[in-house]
Amino acid sequence: MPEGDSVWRAAARLDAALAGHELTRSDLRVPRFATADLTGRTTLGVTPRGKHLLARFEGGLTLHTHLGMDGSWRVFAAREKWHGGPAYEIRAVLGTAGHTAVGYRLPVVELLRTCEEDRAVGHLGPDLLGPDWDAGEAAANLLAAPRRPLGEALLDQRNLAGIGNIYKSELCFLAQVTPWTPVGDLPDPGTTAVRLAGAAHRLLRANTGDRAVRNTTGSRRPGQELFVYGRARRPCLRCGTPVREAPQDDRPTYWCPHCQSGPTPPARPPG
C-alpha cells in the first residue's frame, strides 16, 4: 500500500533513471492526454509531494501522478522485459536511451504546466518528507477540528501529507489512544499533536531506505515489524492482548484494546 515513504522511494528511482536524460519514448494512456508527446524533452527531475509524484520536463511541463491504493512505477533497463501487471493496466510510459519507466494502475495521470503545480498539490499540508516539513503547522492543522477522530485527521492530506492507513494505525498505537478518539480529547492535545507529528516524520524518514518491509517497531524479527496494523486477533507485541480490527472511513483499522484508550466502534454482529 503506497504511503509517503514508498512514494518517496518511487520518486528517487524515477529521478535516478530519468533526470538529465532526453525522452525517446512518451506514452500517456489516458484519454485526456493520449495525444500528448513528451519525446525530445529532457527530464529535469522527479520529486514527491506527500503521496503525489511530480516529474518535471524542460519547456515548463510537469507530469503529475498518484499511486492510489495499488498503483506503481517500475523502472526497467532499455531491453528488459516489463513486469508489473498486464499491458491493459499501464497508464504511462517514459523512456530514455537507457531506461524505461512504466506506470501501472495509476488513478491520476495529468500533464500540466509546471507553474500550475499548485492546482494539483497546493491543498496539501506540510510534507512529512519534504523541505517544507513543519511539525508545529501540522499539529495546528490537526487541532483545528477538535471533534474529528484522530485517525481521520491523520489521513487528511490537508493536515499533513504522507500518512496512509498503515501509519495511521501505528501512530494511534504509539499515542496510546484509539483512532476514534477526538483530537480535542487527546491527553494535553497541543503537546500530543506535536509529538504525533514528530513521530510521523521520524517513522517515514526511517523507512525511506531500501528495506523490503516497512518497520515501525524497530524489531528485526519476522512478523513483528508493525505494532498493530494487519495483526487482527494476534497478540499485541506489548501486552499480549489480541489486536482488534474494524473499519474507519471504509478502511481497515487496528488497535489494542488494552494499550489504547478511547472510544471504539460497536462490535459487528456475527455472521
Helices, strands, pairings?
Layout: H1 4-18, E1 25-28, E2 43-49, E3 52-57, E4 61-66, E5 72-77, E6 90-95, E7 99-104, E8 108-113, H2 118-121, H3 135-143, H4 150-155, H5 165-175, H6 189-206, E9 244-248, E10 251-255
Antiparallel strand pairs: 1-6, 2-3, 3-4, 4-8, 5-7, 6-7, 9-10
Helix pairs in contact: 3-6, 5-6
How does this model look, in words?
The chain is of the alpha+beta class. It folds into 2 domains: 4-121, MutM-like, N-terminal (N-terminal domain of MutM-like DNA repair proteins, Alpha-Beta Barrel), CATH 3.20.190; 135-255, Helicase, Ruva Protein, domain 3. 23% of the residues lie in helices and 21% in strands. It has helices spanning 4-18, 118-121, 135-143, 150-155, 165-175, 189-206; strands spanning 25-28, 43-49, 52-57, 61-66, 72-77, 90-95, 99-104, 108-113, 244-248, 251-255. It has a 4-stranded antiparallel sheet, covered by helices on one side. Helix 3 (135-143) crosses helix 6 (189-206) and helix 5 (165-175) crosses helix 6.
Give the count of structural domains.
2
Total DSSP E strands = 10
H-E order = HEEEEEEEEHHHHHEE
Question: Quick one: CATH class of the largest domain?
Answer: Mainly Alpha
Separation, N- and C-terminal Cα atoms: 28 Å
Oligomer status: single chain
- The general outline is elongated
Helix content estimate: 10-25%
What is the mean predicted local confidence, pLDDT? Answer: 95
Global Rg: 20 Å
The name of the CATH topology of the largest domain is: Helicase, Ruva Protein, domain 3
Largest sheet, order of strands side by side? 1-6-7-5
Portion in strands: 15-25%
Query: How does CATH name the architecture of the largest domain?
Result: Orthogonal Bundle
Low-confidence stretches: none
Sheet with most strands: 4 strands, antiparallel
By secondary-structure content and strand pairing, the structural class works out as alpha+beta
Contiguous helical run count: 6
